[in-house]
Write a structure and sequence with these properties.
This protein is mostly helical and 360 residues long. Helix 4 packs across helix 5.
Amino acid sequence: MLSMSLSSLGFTFASKGWFGFGAGAAVAFFFMLAFAPMFITIMRRWQSKGQPIRENGPKAHLEKAGTPTMGGILILAAIFTSSVLFMDLYNPIPWVALLSLLLFGAIGFADDFGKVTKRSAYAGLSARGRLALGGGAALVLAFLADYFMPAYVPELSVFVPLFHWFLPLGIFYFVFAYFVIVGSANAANITDGLDGMLSKILLPVFLVLFAALYGATHVNFLPGGVFLPEAVGLYPVLGAAIGAIVGFLWFNAKPAQLFMGDVGSLALGGFMGTVAMQLKSEIAIGIAAMMMVLILLSTFSQMIVFKLTKGSNGVGKRIFKMAPLHHHFELSGWTETKIVERFFVMSIIFSAIALGVMKL
């Protein structure tokens, strides 16, 4: 009897969320289509020379000079507008997700603003400053994600799929949260290096987030998952995020008319990590986002090896021709389109594996 009651309750929550998800996605998508042309014109006039291009990057990227950046501002506007129209304003869960967009978007905006105004790809926030600010944001978001969990979910714990049990971490929960949220933000930021690539890699991952959300609000969908009824409030927000990404891709596909900038990539990455924690699906989303993780690790490992092997002449060994990973393949002769499409395919494969892990 109790099982049937929970199942009916889960179905009610999930079916209620379908409208919010679809409406949120549609409004955010058409918001992007409606306002992006005007936004591009305004940004082109303000930025004059567009996004600064790294001088030590692939030479082919120099032709991208003049393309306006900071399109993430429009993405965030689309998500916030659509979410507020359809979400339950009295449910704190979606507000935490939107807060992650705001906090990491602000960090990205500060970084972008410095680069654009100083006309240098190396201006803006320092790496340490960005990590420190991201860490502070992650602590706040992790606390809120845990605070609003149902009483039957152990505090400061991580849900382990396959084994179907909670791993209590205590104070180390916040260390874990730092790697999940800040790691997601920086992985998205580094992945955003080719026209349309971050959007295409994110879409399969966000669909896995949707599956996790559906499972959290529908008892029988993920037998070993966690039932989180209040998470129904995330349907419009997640739908809006997907709709905004698809709408942005309309203008960011090669040749890009608009770049996302750090304000968009950091915000979407931080949002992904935060929602994963809210749904207790950090491990599954980590698998789905493995393409982004590999890109992040390529940069980190290149930097470590170079520093460890650096001689008196200041030159060290390299694992890749250039990091991040997509630049290595560019210098290996792959076209930009081929890299984006193949990384997109890999993101689909990793997301399918994540779905399998969640379902078992």
